[in-house]
Design brief:
This protein is mainly α. It contains four helices and no strands. Helix content is about 75%, strand content about 0%.
Length: about 120
Protein backbone atom coordinates (compact mmCIF):
# COMPACT_ATOMS: atom_id res chain seq x y z
CA UNK A 1 0.00 0.00 0.00
CA UNK A 2 1.32 3.43 -0.90
CA UNK A 3 2.08 5.85 1.86
CA UNK A 4 -0.82 8.07 2.47
CA UNK A 5 -0.43 11.60 3.80
CA UNK A 6 -2.57 12.31 6.79
CA UNK A 7 -2.66 16.06 6.35
CA UNK A 8 -2.68 18.34 3.38
CA UNK A 9 -0.82 21.03 5.43
CA UNK A 10 2.33 18.93 5.36
CA UNK A 11 2.55 19.33 1.59
CA UNK A 12 1.96 23.08 1.45
CA UNK A 13 5.08 25.12 0.76
CA UNK A 14 4.88 28.84 0.96
CA UNK A 15 6.54 31.07 -1.63
CA UNK A 16 9.06 32.30 0.93
CA UNK A 17 10.42 28.76 1.29
CA UNK A 18 10.93 28.40 -2.44
CA UNK A 19 12.96 31.59 -2.74
CA UNK A 20 16.65 31.44 -2.11
CA UNK A 21 18.47 33.92 0.06
CA UNK A 22 20.12 35.41 -3.00
CA UNK A 23 16.73 36.19 -4.54
CA UNK A 24 15.62 37.88 -1.36
CA UNK A 25 18.90 39.82 -1.10
CA UNK A 26 18.45 41.13 -4.65
CA UNK A 27 14.92 42.30 -3.90
CA UNK A 28 16.02 43.94 -0.66
CA UNK A 29 18.88 45.68 -2.48
CA UNK A 30 16.52 47.08 -5.09
CA UNK A 31 14.11 48.25 -2.40
CA UNK A 32 16.94 49.91 -0.49
CA UNK A 33 18.25 51.69 -3.60
CA UNK A 34 14.75 52.95 -4.41
CA UNK A 35 14.25 54.23 -0.89
CA UNK A 36 17.63 55.99 -0.76
CA UNK A 37 17.07 57.64 -4.15
CA UNK A 38 13.63 58.83 -3.01
CA UNK A 39 15.18 60.27 0.15
CA UNK A 40 17.81 62.11 -1.89
CA UNK A 41 15.13 63.53 -4.17
CA UNK A 42 13.11 64.73 -1.17
CA UNK A 43 16.10 66.43 0.44
CA UNK A 44 16.84 68.23 -2.83
CA UNK A 45 13.21 69.24 -3.11
CA UNK A 46 13.24 70.88 0.33
CA UNK A 47 15.74 73.49 -0.84
CA UNK A 48 13.36 75.25 -3.15
CA UNK A 49 13.37 79.02 -3.05
CA UNK A 50 15.93 81.76 -2.88
CA UNK A 51 18.85 81.64 -0.49
CA UNK A 52 18.20 85.32 0.26
CA UNK A 53 14.78 84.41 1.64
CA UNK A 54 16.38 81.71 3.75
CA UNK A 55 18.92 84.13 5.20
CA UNK A 56 16.39 86.92 5.72
CA UNK A 57 15.20 85.70 9.10
CA UNK A 58 14.95 87.79 12.23
CA UNK A 59 17.90 86.94 14.41
CA UNK A 60 17.28 86.60 18.11
CA UNK A 61 20.29 87.64 20.11
CA UNK A 62 20.25 86.70 23.77
CA UNK A 63 22.35 89.65 24.82
CA UNK A 64 21.26 92.97 26.26
CA UNK A 65 22.37 96.25 24.74
CA UNK A 66 26.04 97.11 25.30
CA UNK A 67 25.36 99.75 27.96
CA UNK A 68 23.44 97.26 30.08
CA UNK A 69 25.88 94.42 29.51
CA UNK A 70 29.05 96.23 30.64
CA UNK A 71 28.34 95.95 34.38
CA UNK A 72 27.39 92.27 34.14
CA UNK A 73 30.47 91.53 32.02
CA UNK A 74 32.71 93.24 34.58
CA UNK A 75 31.17 91.19 37.40
CA UNK A 76 31.56 87.94 35.48
CA UNK A 77 35.18 88.75 34.63
CA UNK A 78 35.95 89.59 38.28
CA UNK A 79 34.32 86.37 39.44
CA UNK A 80 36.36 84.39 36.95
CA UNK A 81 39.55 86.07 38.13
CA UNK A 82 38.67 85.27 41.76
CA UNK A 83 38.04 81.64 40.83
CA UNK A 84 41.32 81.48 38.93
CA UNK A 85 43.12 83.01 41.91
CA UNK A 86 41.50 80.50 44.29
CA UNK A 87 42.47 77.64 42.01
CA UNK A 88 46.06 78.88 41.82
CA UNK A 89 46.26 79.21 45.62
CA UNK A 90 44.78 75.76 46.11
CA UNK A 91 47.24 74.25 43.65
CA UNK A 92 50.12 76.04 45.34
CA UNK A 93 49.01 74.76 48.76
CA UNK A 94 48.68 71.21 47.43
CA UNK A 95 52.10 71.41 45.83
CA UNK A 96 53.70 72.68 49.05
CA UNK A 97 51.98 69.91 51.06
CA UNK A 98 53.23 67.34 48.57
CA UNK A 99 56.74 68.75 48.80
CA UNK A 100 56.61 68.54 52.62
CA UNK A 101 55.48 64.91 52.47
CA UNK A 102 58.25 64.05 50.02
CA UNK A 103 60.86 65.68 52.30
CA UNK A 104 59.49 63.81 55.34
CA UNK A 105 59.52 60.54 53.40
CA UNK A 106 63.12 61.13 52.30
CA UNK A 107 64.14 61.89 55.92
CA UNK A 108 62.41 58.73 57.17
CA UNK A 109 64.16 56.64 54.51
CA UNK A 110 67.50 58.17 55.43
CA UNK A 111 66.87 57.42 59.11
CA UNK A 112 66.02 53.81 58.25
CA UNK A 113 69.22 53.49 56.25
CA UNK A 114 71.24 54.97 59.10
CA UNK A 115 69.63 52.60 61.62
CA UNK A 116 70.26 49.64 59.33
CA UNK A 117 73.90 50.67 58.85
CA UNK A 118 74.39 51.15 62.62
CA UNK A 119 72.77 47.78 63.30
CA UNK A 120 75.08 46.11 60.77
CA UNK A 121 78.19 47.76 62.32
CA UNK A 122 77.20 46.75 65.83
CA UNK A 123 76.62 43.14 64.87
CA UNK A 124 80.10 42.82 63.34
Amino acid sequence: MAERETSFAKNVQLDSYKQSLLDRAERLGVTFNNASSNEAKQSQGDKQGSSMVEKDQPKHVNRPPEEMAKAADRQAYAKGMRNDDKAAKTKQAMDSERAKRLIEKAKAEQQNKDQNNNGMKNSM
